[in-house]
């Protein structure tokens, strides 16, 4: 009996040491794991376009191979992004510093109206950080190129990757694995398309509204509204607050009221018409749940966590649905 107890204790120690070793190994390579997850999400995001190009036929024969379809898809998306930034960045670089200065002066002015002295450091001093940012620019470019190349490799060999893990799955669970992978693949593709559609819509409409009401910072505020659309609840509130604040700061009460009414109307149209139409195929998490996931993942992984919050929430939901709830 004593030997049996000793044997169990020894196995427990070995298992504990092994578990700690696995945790330490994962912690050591977690940047690589995060890079792999990001590359997978990018590949799955472009998968609908790859599939559509791959299925183009002439005389009932496919024209493009999987590799060609993947390369064409990535080239099209990257070209679209680069072209957009080529036209936007010069004007954005011109307006953004003035916008920061206006926000700073407005906050200080409102604080003085309530007899509160608020000291905000001059934003121009942060231009000194441009040198350190430029020094890390090369590293960021390398990381971005690595992400793009890894995403392309995953996209080209996606079918082979699925078959590989299908064979590794025990035979009795392969059908469940296929269902989980297929649902995750479809969910990610639909979510990315829907989210980009919403961000593009809000960005264009907000920029147009601010331009016609005479707000000189229409471009950075419009882009900010589009980007903040990915943050549920608080994102639209921040973009609306800043746009209205700047309008009133420019001593244009009419423009401020029009901006507030327009932003509120856009949110009503989005929530009641556009979101159900564009995001109809997505899992349909409540904004509160998405916001909580956003906070949790951002707390642990920073900006990367903000990007991964919804995809990981989808993955967890799919796993629970197929592995836990069905049991």
Topology:
Layout: H1 2-28, H2 30-54, E1 57-58, E2 61-62, H3 66-113, H4 130-135, H5 137-156, H6 158-168, H7 174-212, H8 218-228, H9 234-249, H10 253-278, H11 287-301, H12 303-325
Antiparallel strand pairs: 1-2
What does it look like?
The chain has 327 residues and is mainly alpha-helical. The protein has a domain at 169-327. 82% of the residues lie in helices and 1% in strands. It is built from twelve helices and two strands, in the order ααββαααααααααα. The protein has a two-stranded antiparallel sheet. Helix 9 packs antiparallel against helix 10 (253-278). The longest helix is centred in the N-terminal third of the chain and has 48 residues, at 66-113. The chain is globular and about 70 Å long. The relative contact order is 0.08.
- β-strand percent reads under 5%
Strand order of the largest sheet: 1-2
Would you report the number of β strands?
A: 2
Sheet with the most strands?
A: 2 strands, antiparallel
How do you describe this structure in short?
The chain is mainly α and 327 residues long.
Question: Which tags fit this structure?
Answer:
12 helices; disordered N terminus; 327 residues; 2 strands; two-stranded antiparallel ribbon; mainly alpha; globular
């Amino acid at each position: 009996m004593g030997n049996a107890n000793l044997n169990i204790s020894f196995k427990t120690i070995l298992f504990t040491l092994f578990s700690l070793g696995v945790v330490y190994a994962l912690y050591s390579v977690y940047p690589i794991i995060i890079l792999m997850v990001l590359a997978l999400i990018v590949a799955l995001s472009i998968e609908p376009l790859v599939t559509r190009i791959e299925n183009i036929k002439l005389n009932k024969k496919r024209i493009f191979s999987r590799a060609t379809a993947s390369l064409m898809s990535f080239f099209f998306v990257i070209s679209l992004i680069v072209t957009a930034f080529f036209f936007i960045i010069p004007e954005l670089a011109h307006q953004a510093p003035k916008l920061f200065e206006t926000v700073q002066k407005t906050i200080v002015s409102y604080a003085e109206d309530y007899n509160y002295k608020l000291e905000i450091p001059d934003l121009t001093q942060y231009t000194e950080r441009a040198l350190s940012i430029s020094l890390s620019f090369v590293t960021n470019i390398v990381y971005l190129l690595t992400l793009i190349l890894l995403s392309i490799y995953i996209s080209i060999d996606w079918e082979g990757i699925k078959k590989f893990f299908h064979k590794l799955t025990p035979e009795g669970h392969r059908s469940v694995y296929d269902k989980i992978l297929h649902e995750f693949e479809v969910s990610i593709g639909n979510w990315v398309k829907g989210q980009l559609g919403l961000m593009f819509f809000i960005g264009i409409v907000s920029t147009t509204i601010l331009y016609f009401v005479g707000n000189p910072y229409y471009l950075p505020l419009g882009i900010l509204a589009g980007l903040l659309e990915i943050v549920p609840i608080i994102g639209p509130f921040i973009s609306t607050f800043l746009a209205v604040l700047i309008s009133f700061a420019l001593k244009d009460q009419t423009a401020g009221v029009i901006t507030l009414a327009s932003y509120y109307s856009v949110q009503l149209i989005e929530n009641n018409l556009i979101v159900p139409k564009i995001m109809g195929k997505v899992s349909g998490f409540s904004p509160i749940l998405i916001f909580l996931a956003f906070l949790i993942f951002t707390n642990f992984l920073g900006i990367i966590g903000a990007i991964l919050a919804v995809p990981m929430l989808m993955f967890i939901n799919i796993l629970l649905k197929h592995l836990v709830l069905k049991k």
